């Protein structure tokens, strides 16, 4: 007697031993972008930021941009060009790096603010979000042994920047900017190559050198990255 295979049996035969892929955490990681434009005789605001596919990270980014705009407007609310003949400006632009399977999404916001002086101030703001729970991957969450990790990261960044800055190298500035303390390395993202650390103008070199970034490959940080994060990154 022959039995008609059930649908489940057919699927098992077709799939064989192939591993089942987990469903993506959310897709696409960026749903849309928000643009804020305001112009008065004394001010220009031109801000953009992403809306991610989870509500928690989107609120964090939105609140940061809103507070930055609020603080910018407080600098000189009555500015009308009568004393200083140039408008004040605030600009933000963003970039997003999802990891291959979407577990982690990194966001970098470039902020430029001009409120007088010889040139604008520029600085990076970064976040790494775990799309499994919407939480932020802080430096402490990335590196359980923060002291050992900062010592390693500091030494590697010093080596790279000492070579790449060339004529812009100012040893005292570099020494201060890469000291193994949390504030010097809190602006980072996760990429396919490793952990990228961003340094604002003046942190490690003169303003003319611009923003600096050092990407440290994951294998150079072996044993220092939190096991659950390292496992997820390796799996991707």
UniProtKB/TrEMBL annotation:
Residues annotated as signal peptide: 1-22
InterPro entries cross-referenced by the UniProt entry: DUF3298, PdaC/RsiV-like_sf
Keywords annotated in UniProt: Signal
Domain of life: Bacteria
Occurrences of domain DUF3298 (ranges): 142-219
Keyword Transport: no
Name recorded for this polypeptide: DUF3298 domain-containing protein
Protein's organism: Pseudodesulfovibrio mercurii
Taxonomic placement: Bacteria, Pseudomonadati, Thermodesulfobacteriota, Desulfovibrionia, Desulfovibrionales
């Amino acid at each position: 007697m022959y039995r008609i295979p059930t649908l489940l049996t057919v699927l098992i035969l077709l799939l064989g031993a192939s591993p089942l892929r987990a469903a993506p955490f959310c897709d696409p990681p960026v749903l849309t972008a928000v643009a804020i434009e305001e112009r008065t005789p004394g001010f220009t605001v031109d801000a953009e930021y992403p809306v991610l596919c989870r509500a928690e990270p989107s609120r964090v980014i939105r609140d940061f941009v809103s507070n930055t705009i609020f603080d910018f407007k407080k600098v000189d609310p009555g500015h009308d060009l009568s004393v200083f003949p140039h408008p004040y400006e605030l600009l933000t632009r963003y970039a997003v790096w999802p990891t291959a399977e979407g577990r982690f999404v990194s966001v970098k916001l470039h902020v430029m603010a001009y409120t007088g002086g010889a040139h604008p101030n520029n600085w990076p703001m970064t976040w790494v979000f775990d799309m499994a729970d919407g939480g932020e991957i802080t430096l402490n969450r990335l590196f359980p042994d923060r002291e050992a990790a900062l010592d390693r990261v500091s030494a590697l960044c010093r080596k790279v920047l000492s070579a790449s800055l060339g004529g812009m190298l100012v040893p005292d500035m570099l020494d201060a900017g890469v000291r193994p303390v949390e504030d010097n390395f809190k602006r980072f993202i996760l990429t396919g190559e490793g952990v990228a650390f961003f340094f604002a103008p003046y942190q490690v070199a003169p303003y003319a050198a611009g923003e600096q970034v050092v990407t440290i490959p994951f294998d150079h940080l072996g044993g220092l990255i939190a096991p659950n994060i390292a496992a997820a990154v390796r799996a991707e």
